[in-house]
User: Fold this.
Amino acid sequence: MGDYSAEIISHIDRNHIKELLSRGERIDGRRFDEYRPIEIEYDIVAAKAEGSALVRMGATSVIAGVKVVLGEPYPDTPDEGVTMITAEMPPIASPLFELGPPKEDAIELARVVDRGVRESETVDVKQLVVEPGKMVYMVFVDIYALEFDGNLIDAASIAANAALITAKFDEYKWENDEAVPTGNRIPVPLKNLSIECTIAKIDDYLIVDPLLKEEFVQDCRLTIAIDENDNLTAMQKGGGSGPMTLEQIERSMDMAIASAKDIRELIRSTAKERENA
Assistant:
């Protein structure tokens, strides 16, 4: 995910990847605008989370869990609930990850996914209020990397959205200056379903959903959040300091918009299958 040392990949592999790109090919045979097959499983931690999803993209896999608790609103937003996304990248997922407090890559992963959710207004925070200024619902999305073979951001974004769209939590009402459970289970109020798509730049070539080896040789990457109306709601450049031209950014936007539609439909269709099962 990060700006890895050039020593991790051999010059032979580096040159091979670039040579393939020059011929319009990738190391796993995909088109430049093609994602790896995406699989989504739901209710992975049903006993401990209000909603959860496991996403596999090739050899990259991520689990996301949603937890909803009661809490006090922030003083500057007394009529809004709270959403927060955290991420862990444990050594079990990759030898590149280290034990200890969250490192820069894990913080970046959480912030990029969080920005896509917030800026797109995925969750209707106005509907997360039990009593204005006193009690609101706080929606936490915890992301945990299980396997890493490139493009954790998109896998995490898909997992977060899949977990949110299927999550249900205990409803409360305000009586006698306290929150009282109603006995009902209600869904997380969603206004949008924003999808984050990552495009890697290697020399003059742009590819979606980069593999780890492709991330090793990328000049940089651009992650773009696309909402249901094809609006670009957030953008994050990282994974290297290489420049991108305006024309390359525009091409990346087009690739992201096209990919986001298919991914959003996959999330909705698999969530519906789960509901009807």
Observations:
- The chain has five helices and twelve strands.
- Helices lie at 11-22, 104-119, 152-166, 212-217, 246-276.
- Confidence is low (pLDDT under 50) at residues 2-7.
- Residues 27 and 235 are 27 Å apart (CA to CA).
